[in-house]
Each structure stands twice: as C-alpha cells, then as structure tokens.
Amino acid sequence: MSRSLNKVMLIGNVGSEPDIRATSSGTRVAKVSLATSRQWKDGSGQQKEKTEWHRLTFFGRLVDIVDQWVKKGDRLYIEGRIEYSESESDGQKKYWTDIIVLEMVMLGSTGGGDGGGRGGDFQSDSSPVSSPASPISEPDDDLPF
Questions:
Q1: 114: domain range?
Q2: Within a 13 Å sphere around the CA of 10, how many CA atoms are in the beta-carbon half?
Q3: pTM of the prediction?
C-alpha cells in the first residue's frame, strides 16, 4: 500500500480576532486568519516582501483554547492539513483552501496588548503540553525520505 502525506506547518501572526461559531449539528468551530511573510532582494537590490494569508479552522478542544487565548497579533506555530472545498452562490462558484489545525503552539503576542510572552503547546485531542519551548517531534513512520 502506498502512503501519502498532507501536512502543513506554519509560523505567523493572527490577522483578526477569532470567529467562533457552531455548525447546524452543534459542533463548535473557530476560524482564524494567519499571515506569513517572506522577504528577499530583487535583482536591483531592492528589499521586497510578500505576505500570504491562510484560513485556519479549529475543532474540538482547540476551539476552547482559541476562544480563550488567541487574539489578533498573536504569533502561532500550527500543524495541520490542507482541505479544499467549494460553494456556489448566485451561480458563482467559490473555492476555499483551509488549514485544518491539529496542533498549535502559542509563541506570544507581537502587539502591545494583553499577555505578551504567553505560550503553550496544544493538540486537538489532548490537554496542553507542559513545556511550550520543547520541539514537536513525531514517531518514525517509515517514510521514504
């Protein structure tokens, strides 16, 4: 049997306050925008920057943590998977790319707001891990690379 991998790792800044909602079945969902930026020099030596915006979606225990702790400007490390979807409105198809977050590490706040420097590791199906500075490691799963 061949294996496949759908994994995303991002470090960025929260772009807006989290949007917490419930589905028609009562499942709570949190949506957050996350900005990642890269800088480089072009051929003439001019400094350039490009920011990408990512749509993060949280389920389970992570919704409670996002609701309580995540604010605009906070720096997050997340791990998750990419999901694509589409919807139709007024005959127009819209396509969405979401990152379904499975793990999150709060790296602190960048703004002058409340609680700079807070941190913690969180997984979608467990309690917070005690050491926010510890690296995330995964068991060897015999991947060929």
A1: 8-123
A2: 27
A3: 0.72
- Residues in the chain predicted with pLDDT less than 70, given as ranges, are 109-145
According to DSSP, the residues that pair with 21 across neighbouring strands are: 29
Q: Does residue 20 belong to any structural domain of this protein?
A: yes
Q: What is the DSSP letter of 129?
A: B
- What CATH number is given to the structural domain containing 70? 2.40.50.140
Residue 71 lies in a domain: yes
The residues that bridge with 136 in the sheet, in sequence order, are none
How would you classify residue 90: left for phi > 0, otherwise alpha for psi between -120 and 50, otherwise beta? left
* Within a domain: 1: no
pLDDT by residue (tens digit) across 59-69? 999 999 999 99
